[in-house]
Amino acid sequence: MADWVVDSGDNGSLPFVVVDKVDARVFVFEPGGQLRGESPALLGLAIGDEAVPGIGQRKLSSIRPEERTTSAGRFVAAQDRNLQGKEILWIDYDAAISLHPVVTGTARERRAERLATPSPLDNRVSYGCINVPVPFYKNVVGPAFTGTDGIVYVLPETRSVREVFGSYDVDERARLKTAGQAWPSQGAK
Questions:
Q1: Is residue 37 within 8 Å of residue 138, measured between CB atoms?
Q2: pTM to 2 decimals?
């Protein structure tokens, strides 16, 4: 995915993040594609690629478990502060999805412990936000987005990457170009 972002210029020379929901990992890149850092992440409890319409205006207590998804797609992201004054990276303001340091207020959710396990199988717990370890946010995410917007690509888990982003295989495109064959325009940027 990162190769396609750089090859296509889809990030518009901005820093970018790739969120892999299946493996529950976050990758932060410099505008030119150099990996700045990676980390495990906590994601929405429910599997799915779409936000429930109007979910960002609802109280957390009214959101059912099956509605707690992390939306897939391409988002222009910006750093800001939440209602408690804590720094976050807004991903999808209308759906109230952000990337932020792990929230550990509800002990039974064991969020910090879930981040530390080697398996992504226990990383589905949030209302849709993407939680990362505090040092990763402070040392990687925060500095990458200081003074600039960026792009966040949340990979789908129920649809294909090509379907969601119109992406293409960079290596295949290069092979065709070297062989003098035209790259199909349908579905490619």
A1: no
A2: 0.88
